[in-house]
Description:
The chain is mainly alpha-helical. Helix content is 76%, strand content 1%. It has helices at 2-14, 16-45, 63-68, 71-103, 107-118, 125-136, 141-148, 162-186, 190-198, 203-214, 216-231, 235-241, 248-256, 262-290; strands at residues 49-50, 56-57. It has a two-stranded antiparallel sheet. The longest helix is centred in the first third of the chain and has 33 residues, at 71-103. The protein is globular and about 75 Å long.
Amino acid sequence: xxxxxxxxxxxxxxxxxxxxxxxxxxxxxxxxxxxxxxxxxxxxxxxxxxxxxxxxxxxxxxxxxxxxxxxxxxxxxxxxxxxxxxxxxxxxxxxxxxxxxxxxxxxxxxxxxxxxxxxxxxxxxxxxxxxxxxxxxxxxxxxxxxxxxxxxxxxxxxxxxxxxxxxxxxxxxxxxxxxxxxxxxxxxxxxxxxxxxxxxxxxxxxxxxxxxxxxxxxxxxxxxxxxxxxxxxxxxxxxxxxxxxxxxxxxxxxxxxxxxxxxxxxxxxxxxxxxxxxxxxxxxxxxxxxx
Length: 291
């Protein structure tokens, strides 16, 4: 065995290109089979036509992309990006103080607080969304409390609104913002904060000039981790928003499900992916210039 290992090392030393290929081969195979091949299939389907019984007609067309320019679908696209941006902004504003508090907590409390952040993942996302339905419906806990304390005279319309979708997505994606921020704040050199304080900087300016720039990688990572799944979410919009607040994820799911229009669903998926990549690229460029 030792001799075989030695011969293998000698062989790779004489053939460095094969050595590199043996290291990258498994990763390239995985990416090729599970990412590039499905992506190419989606790309091909987006230029084909829907069959009379939901199948695929192998006839080239651009109709799927022209159809997407209909005002109905553009409204859904704008609503998806608006709610995704609002979700990312709210998660960032609420997640940063939480991550900051955890990072500066004592050893005794730090692990406990981190477990509390991760704890919702132990329950199915679907079950947690159903729980929000129970809270937000006309006879739910929130409306019952408002009525009991005479704050409102009749139940508020909370469920099946954009506000309900926003609450559900912020609740679901908040840990994706807190954890990267915590990792970034945890690495922060505390002596820099002390130096800024010695030089007379107020807490506000210490945060703006020292803490925020040094933790910007965490802000970028958290924003991307929240924005991408938010813009393509379909479980939360379906259950909390109903048909009036359809988002891109729900639209794609409907095309591949009940509508059985795979070519149009593929075209929507590609358009959404390209727009998300452009948005992330612009965000990275802007934050890099700021940094």
